[in-house]
Design brief:
With 328 residues, the protein is α/β, with parallel strands linked by helices. Helix content is 33%, strand content 17%. It is built from twelve helices and twelve strands. A hairpin with a 6-residue loop joins β8 and β9. The longest helix has 20 residues. It is globular, with a radius of gyration of 19 Å. It starts with 5 loop residues before the first strand and ends with a helix.
Length: 328
Amino acid sequence: MNQVDYLRISLIDRCNFRCQYCMPEGAELDYILKQQLLTDEELLTLLQYVFIPLGFTRFRLTGGEPLLRPRVPQLVHAIASLRQTQDISMTTNGFLLAPMAQNLYDAGLRRINISLDSLDPDTFEQIIGNHGRGRWQQVWQGIQAAYRVGFDPLKLNVVVIPGVNDHEVLDLAALTIDKQWHVRFIEFMPIGNSQLFGDRGWVSSADLRQSIRERWGLTESHICGNGPADVFQIPGAKGTLGFISQMSECFCDRCNRMRLSADGWLRPCLLNETGQIDLKTSLRAGISTAELREQVRQVLTIKAEINFKQRDSGTVGTYTRTMSQIGG
């Protein structure tokens, strides 16, 4: 396996959207109380004395919606200022981004992923579960603001849902032709949305690539991503197309990440609930960072086994947490 050096950090489990694939309509979600969230100080303590000594140097801030957390630019600056930090990035739905983009960039954030599952405002509203609120335009303004500020790469994440937005794949792919934007198509996953997933299933990345290839042609890109995406390019395009194929293709051998939830649970595998440990409770109980570091080291030693041997056996029936509660 790759060296595990990348930590995805959920700042908050709440979100101002309720996307079908993340927070299914009708699901009752028990939000984490503010006092149960990792504080900025606790998070920085874990990074500095637990994760960084174990080789973690790259950090992505996620949610829920991370921009709902107070003082995010200050937290970005604190993480970016750690001597060992090689990269800090963020995944956001973009709704609150436009007025914050410059402050985030000035704080040290350089890479950003923005969810954009449709170019049609009505379809967008259907996916995000905010019918009639007209939120597409504000997200689009956030994307434009990030582009003007200079985020590079600027990535657009698209979860492809059969019968909902799969007919827009070519339109979304075309965004990469004239701008240095990088569109990432993500296969729909059955995490916290088993009823919707069972009804619709998923579209394979291979099928998406074939549709794009028939329209424009498609070549493997010379730009390699840091994550699980297979990267391609429309001939002559300024941007790239990535395909994240967690359902149709196992990429466990390329996995270099763990996930830290907003309430301090460390999860070694997205598709598996085996091996999770509660760092926040231990930290607040006075367990030393040296002991916590050893606990994380032990999880690292079994991560490969969790990924490969137990990929499909880490859950019973359905996942206990939705994607918003895991942290993406």
